[in-house]
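Section 3.1: Structural characterization of target chains.
Under the original work plan, the team committed to producing a structural model for every single-chain target entering the pipeline before any wet-lab resources were allocated. The record below documents one such target. The sequence was received from the expression subgroup and is listed exactly as submitted; it comprises 368 residues.
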Amino acid sequence: MNIKRIGTVAAIAIAGAVVLSSCASNEAGDTASSTASSGTDYSKLSGTLTGSGSSAQQTAEATWAAGIQNVASGVTVNYSPDGSGAGRKNFISGAADFAGSDAALSDEELSGSFANCAADSKAIDIPVYISPIAIAYKVDGVKKLTLDAKTIAGIFSGKITKWNDSQIAALNDGVDLPDANITVVHRSDDSGTTQNFSEYVSANAGDVWTEEPSQTFPYQVGDSAKGTSGVASAMASASNAITYIDDSGAGDLDKAKLMVGDTATEISADGAAKVVADSDVVSGREDNDLAIDIDRKDTAKGAWPLVLVSYAIACQEYKDSDKGELVKGYLDYVVSKDAQDAAAKEAKSAALSTELSEKAAKAVASIK
């Protein structure tokens, strides 16, 4: 990853209901040491944390919540996959101790106050989860499909409505595409996955995707569902359908190849990680804020620019210092190699690179 900081991010709307529940299960991470390489003694940690947000992070958070109990039996982490927008709203209001979000805090959000943060302290974004977004489909008789940014933008904006449309056919020579209507399935809630998806099509097919990148799906087309699991459920009962979904939730759905430059590229966590490594950190934010400006036009071999970076959002300093120490301890575990490798196995995500992991650990260490 490049060290320099560039640009700023646009304001992101937030909405959603507060629903907090535990998703942890006692699996993964049982080989981790009770003392981290950072020097944190997990065995001294005790208490309960409430997290809310990204449904893409759901599997990873369940893995981490279970894993930390193997090294810190007194810690309970309850994480509710309410969606990124709802998670940030819950964190800002004080209803959650930390948020999971597939979109970093906006400048507008950072200009406000945070209920759990100490006076004059802001929140910071710490990358904890990197995952490719799949263009997943379920089409009768079609098991191989290649799409580019323009066809994806055309389909999801409602401009391409048939599977045998000439633009799709041109990318799929020899594939028997049915003369069937395309059913588009998209997120209904404020979604960081939608934000990342719309950033990709806007950057690469702005003449087709004419709406600004947003957490809210902007077109009146197809069917909608809440959360990653809701989208997966809607696809299971649909026919001739297509969606964008975090790869961890794609299940048995077929996945399209993506034209990256001149190459039809298969989805991979390694390809997603490569794009993140090629990207820069956003400028003009707190020193320990690691919001990433993803290079959506990366055409390197194997790159998958339809990627999301999901963050843990925490106070730089908490009003309650004990809560701050607990959040710090948990996130120290989350960015550790053991936790990252466990999540990569369970969620098909990419573990943080050594360089990014070191930066994330430094940011976590600054939490008070």
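The chain has two domains: 5-131+286-291+311-365, 132-270.
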